Amino acid sequence: MRNSVSEKTVEVDEVTAALNNNAAAVLAVSRAVEGTLGPKGLDTMMVGPFGEILVTNSGVAILEKMEISHPASRMILEAAKSQYIQVGDGTTTAIVMAAAILKEGIAQILKGVPVSRLLEGIEKAAELGIEILREKCRIPVTELQDPFLLQVAVTAGRGDEKTAAMIFQAAQQLGKEKISSHSFKFADIIFARTGVEDQLIKGTLLSKGRVSTLMPVRISSAVILLLEDNLGPEEVENESLRTESGFKKNMDLKQRFLENLQRILSLGVNVVFTTGGIEPEAEEILIQAGAFAARRITSRDLKDISNCTGARSLKRSGLNRTSESIRTFLGKAESVFEMEEIGMIVILGGVGKPSSTLLVGANTDQVTEEKRRKTRDAASSLQAAFQSGVVPGGGASELTCVRFLESRRSEFSGMTSYGLDCVIQGLKQPFFQMAVNAGYNSLEKTEEICRLQSKQDLNSLSLDFETGESADMLEKKVVDPLKVKVFALKTASEVAQAILRINRVVKMRDHEQIS
């Protein structure tokens, strides 16, 4: 009997050790980013092994750069990446929520709450929380001119009003169809280069230079050929070249290509973009004709040029088409030119779909990279807000969820209510941390705002982190995208549940040993 009791104690100790070890790792990650949360959040300085420095306020940037080895920490990192890929913002919120849910969950398990019942409660409470966000907090956004969108961009862009205004303008240039499309990523219109001034370009940019400095820097009234191939004659197999007929065929193909190239130029083509190379002889002909060309553009560039200019891509065999047929594949733009100082090509005023590109920069590489990150965050948040609507920011929506979840406690049977407590703690944490970062008593302010929301029946009520007084977030135009909040809660609850399920950590053999 004594041995049985001893074995049971060892087993419990192993489970407790695994839980505490995982919790400590996750809380360490949360502490690394929580100081950046909210309007009073500060920057984090990261130092590399060779003395390189990164100063950032971006939670996802901190996670990407920090040294992470613990398996549970890596799970949090993957969850944060998923949040960023899906909505482009809210990673810090998701992490502090997950850490709070996990911390409370472990405390409940150590008190004797069965893991299965706890997980059931967490899952149900997270689903209810998402339902409450959608039903009690959501404000639809139907127009790209809505000032809420501008404010979302300012908040996600860490208060940079000038850049947020350019993002807001770019969204209106692109139009509803594009911004509402889930296949289009608004953040992809942003380019960053050290030493340039911020500028909004009504067109598209390519991270390429022209093939030769002998070509003109700028082409006005551009007529564009888009070639998804090499610009050169069709090839003959090496084996065939050794025969007389093969050699003759090769010469015929070369002659036909040169004739086709001259014919294309006679159609008015003065700009050529290719995904492959450009043969020296073709390059020389283009130079003599005063044309502009760039080679080895990416598939993304190909798509952007096509959308902007209305050009349709051809394979090189398509150059054998009739002149009238080729003409239908050509695109047009007001101008195409190279910004030589940064090695980029600009296409302005294309006749295709509306296009917009935001070029941002600063005087140093580190500041430029940080500006790129916050500008992309602002663009992603604006798009998410237009697609899903907005909710009151400043922690108001999360505390609204807390209030309504408390009122539905009777729907949780038995010990699943402890899972509800975990999610409530997770939802409180973003506001709690923002209050801490602003220098206030977080427990006092959390209870105060929850009480005032209930008393005034005002779900948009939160804390003015400047004055310490309660304020209506909608009146102050402090809003967040619903999509960001929904994904943050979903991500946090899922990763917390995954870690709470772990009761053993077993090291795997090396791959070589397994094979």
Give structural notes.
There is one protein chain. The chain has 515 residues and is of the alpha+beta class. The protein folds into two domains: 11-140 and 390-511, Orthogonal Bundle (GROEL, domain 1); 203-355, GroEL. 54% of the residues lie in helices and 13% in strands. It is built from 19 helices and 15 strands. It has helices at residues 2-34, 59-65, 71-87, 91-110, 115-137, 147-156, 161-174, 176-180, 238-241, 244-266, 280-288, 299-309, 323-327, 365-388, 396-407, 417-437, 442-456, 482-500, 511-514; strands spanning 44-47, 53-56, 190-192, 199-201, 203-206, 218-227, 271-274, 292-294, 331-339, 344-350, 357-360, 390-392, 461-463, 470-472, 479-481. The strands form five sheets. It has a six-stranded mixed sheet, sandwiched between helices. A hairpin with a 6-residue loop joins strand 13 (461-463) and strand 14. Helix 1 crosses helix 3 (71-87) and helix 7 (161-174) crosses helix 14. The longest helix has 33 residues, at 2-34. The chain is elongated. The two termini are 42 Å apart. The relative contact order is 0.18.
Task: Write a compact overview of the structure shown.
By secondary structure, this protein is α+β, with helices and mostly antiparallel strands. The protein is 54% helix and 13% strand.
Strand order of the largest sheet: 5-10-9-6-7-8
Radius of gyration: 29 Å
**Overall tally of domains:** 2
Low-confidence stretches: 4-12
> Under CATH, the topology of the largest domain is which?
GROEL, domain 1
| Major sheet description | 6 strands, mixed
The CATH class label of the largest domain is Mainly Alpha
What amount of the residues lies in strands?
5-15%
Please name the fourth-level CATH homologous superfamily of the largest domain: GroEL-like equatorial domain
